[in-house]
Amino acid sequence: MNMSPLITTAVMHFGEMGSRWGFNRTVGQIFALIVLNDEPLSAQEIADALSISRGNTSMGLKELQSWQVIKQHHVPGERKEFFVPAGSIWVLANRVFEERRKREIDPTLTLLRDLILDSPSSKQEQVVQERLHEIHDLLESVTAWSQELQNLGPEKLDTLMKLGAGVGRILELKDKLLPGKSQEK
Amino acid sequence: MNMSPLITTAVMHFGEMGSRWGFNRTVGQIFALIVLNDEPLSAQEIADALSISRGNTSMGLKELQSWQVIKQHHVPGERKEFFVPAGSIWVLANRVFEERRKREIDPTLTLLRDLILDSPSSKQEQVVQERLHEIHDLLESVTAWSQELQNLGPEKLDTLMKLGAGVGRILELKDKLLPGKSQEK
DNA sequence: ATAAACTTTCAGTAATTTCTGAAAGTTCAG
DNA sequence: CTGAACTTTCAGAAATTACTGAAAGTTTAT
């Protein structure tokens, strides 16, 4: 399956970026290849296209499945498995976000919660705990918010985005319209 | 400078998470150490506390400064440099976000813009371009949004968060109240 | 049950990233 | 200007991570 120059460029780039996005080069390349191809691809085709070993391909596919961004696709009459994206771009992006949250934020949140529970054994510890508390709250806000955005779906996110700096205004608006519902923490 | 168990635990954790957050273990540890200590720390103190070489410490500090999350602090009468966090937790978190955006999203956005500009040389290429376009738009939305949140500041983010699923409702509300300002794309 | 067609696993190797420590560089007091 | 106190740099060593390819495993047709 010879790749068009366009696809090649994109695939190589996603490979380079891969490690920054939480997976390694080959996984990034495999992912891009699958997403940009309309036809389902077999593992062998992928290995050939990227010039990587069959074994490595297998591991990469496994990883992408654990991220839930690709899924198997069975072609009637064919013996081998084929792979396709697990959904729309929006869905894929969400899955990546979600998975990264699990790996990058959740463990920290858990630890911080624990550390904050212990009663401080000194003045110094108390200061530290306060700071940890602040970090905890911030991470929790961010987490809750990214969840929220995911639930909104792409169209509403778009509306919200077009609102731009208007978000602040909307907030004020909301205070006028739905009073008494804030500050219950 | 012996670390309390509380600080030790937190520092070690931030070290382990470091690589997931875009920097390496020692950089993560140094960062946590500086943030959790009220007193400014010297490079030597940091190296001792973490049992790492002085050279490595120097590199770590340099990196953290490039992220703009720590800054130098001069103690009158002292010859050496001390280091302190570059701002509040909120500011630090923003800087990390910002920096990651630069490394993880901006390069891709640039590439995608370029790839989309070329006129498609085949039906197949056109399909690919459309998909790249979709990815581009999504990344741009996310970028714009995270900018927006950063500008809001922590208090408003908090309000917004408490709104939770209410955001969707507010959006609808807004459509009724301020019509004609949407769908201009 | 056998064999062909395919996939996964994993030990060893290759590539990459991080760390050390010695040497070179800087700054400042005397 | 000199040297003490400090910092940075960078070549090589150590640690970590990714990749290969052969062997073991699985599935299905006959």
Brief digest:
The structure is a homodimer of 185-residue chains. In chain A, 69% of the residues lie in helices and 6% in strands. With 185 residues, the first copy, chain A, is mainly α.
Fill in the keyword field for this structure.
homodimer; 185 residues; mainly alpha; Arc Repressor Mutant, subunit A; three-stranded antiparallel beta sheet; 69% helix; extended; disordered C terminus
Q: Could you explain how this protein is built, in words?
A:
The structure is a homodimer of 185-residue chains. The first copy, chain A, is mainly α and 185 residues long. Chain A folds into 2 domains: 5-85, Winged helix-like DNA-binding domain superfamily/Winged helix DNA-binding domain (Arc Repressor Mutant, subunit A); 89-154. Helices cover 69% and strands 6% of the residues of chain A. The first copy, chain A, is built from 8 helices and 3 strands, in the order ααβααββαααα. Chain A has a 3-stranded antiparallel beta sheet. In chain A, α1 (5-18) runs antiparallel to α2, α2 packs across α4 and α6 runs antiparallel to α7 (123-163). The longest helix of chain A is centred in the C-terminal third of the chain and has 41 residues, at 123-163. Chain A is extended and about 65 Å long. The model of chain A is unreliable at 181-185 (pLDDT under 50). The interface between A and B is large, with 65 and 65 residues. The structure holds a DNA duplex (30 and 30 nucleotides).
